[in-house]
Design a protein that fits this description.
2 domains; 5 strands; 45% helix; elongated; Hda
């Protein structure tokens, strides 16, 4: 198991690299990094998140944007970056089935906590109260909190006015989608990160036949990497086509 994989598992289940007690039964599906995220129009947001992961900068930040703009990637990557620096970091996806408010217990002692899918608990009185209490606790500890949702904090359907107010205290960034040229650059960079080379024909084929949001493109590259490693050859259009078909079958 690679060091990056061990860090990913540590962050996801709520431990630091000192083998402290496990908290969260969640695993990261991959090993996202801040360097892998192509900023495009979101450079300021990425820089702010990187500073938080380093233990400096803003104490609180709220990300929002449509699905596929990379919110989850940035939250997970920030936690991994913090863990690599020896800090204690936790990633909490509220959209995960079976999570209850108790999952936040004692997490205020973490250096960085990233909470995703805030919209998933809107209207749940127990969750909203617990999230408000946690917000106050982690601020009192002087630690950092990243949050993300599909919509801006002032448009979430929250019933607790104090929570709604708290979520508007810090900077907020709406992640904008990448244009086609930036998506092509993301494809090439992600492939190179995996040790693959994409020819212009392969890039063009992907852009014409696959969803163009960053999440879909990075997922395809990860699947293509598995095919390429298994067959010990660089990606070709037939190999890309098979990776796409495999993803369609996996998605039902």
């Amino acid at each position: 198991m690679s060091n990056a994989t061990q860090l990913a598992q540590a962050v996801a289940i709520g431990v630091n690299t000192s083998n402290q007690q496990l908290h969260l039964p969640i695993e990261l599906r991959r090993e996202p990094t801040l360097a892998e995220y192509l900023p495009g129009p979101n450079a300021e947001a990425v820089d702010t998140i990187a500073a938080m992961a380093a233990g400096t900068g803003e104490p609180f930040l709220f990300l929002f944007g449509n699905q596929g703009t990379g919110k989850t990637h940035l939250l997970q990557a920030a936690c991994l970056d913090a863990a690599q620096r020896g800090l204690k970091a936790n990633f909490v996806p509220l959209g995960t089935e079976g999570l209850g408010p108790g999952i936040l217990e004692n997490l205020e002692h973490s250096d960085l906590v990233a909470i995703d899918d805030i919209e998933a608990i809107s209207g749940n009185a127990d969750w909203e109260r617990s999230l408000l209490d946690f917000f106050n606790q982690i601020r009192a500890q002087g630690h950092r909190l990243l949050m993300a949702a599909r919509t801006a904090p002032d448009t979430l359907s929250l019933e607790l006015a104090d929570l709604s107010s708290r979520l508007q205290w810090g900077p907020r960034y709406c992640l904008a989608p990448l244009n086609d040229r930036q998506c092509e650059e993301l494809l090439i960079r992600s492939a190179e990160h995996c040790g693959m080379r994409l020819s212009p024909d392969v890039v063009r084929f992907i852009m014409n036949n696959n969803a163009r949001d960053p999440a879909s493109l990075v997922t395809l590259i990860a699947r293509l990497d598995s095919f390429s490693l298994r067959e010990q050859r660089q990606p070709t259009i037939p190999l890309v086509r098979r990776a796409m078909e495999d993803g369609t079958e996996a998605g039902g």
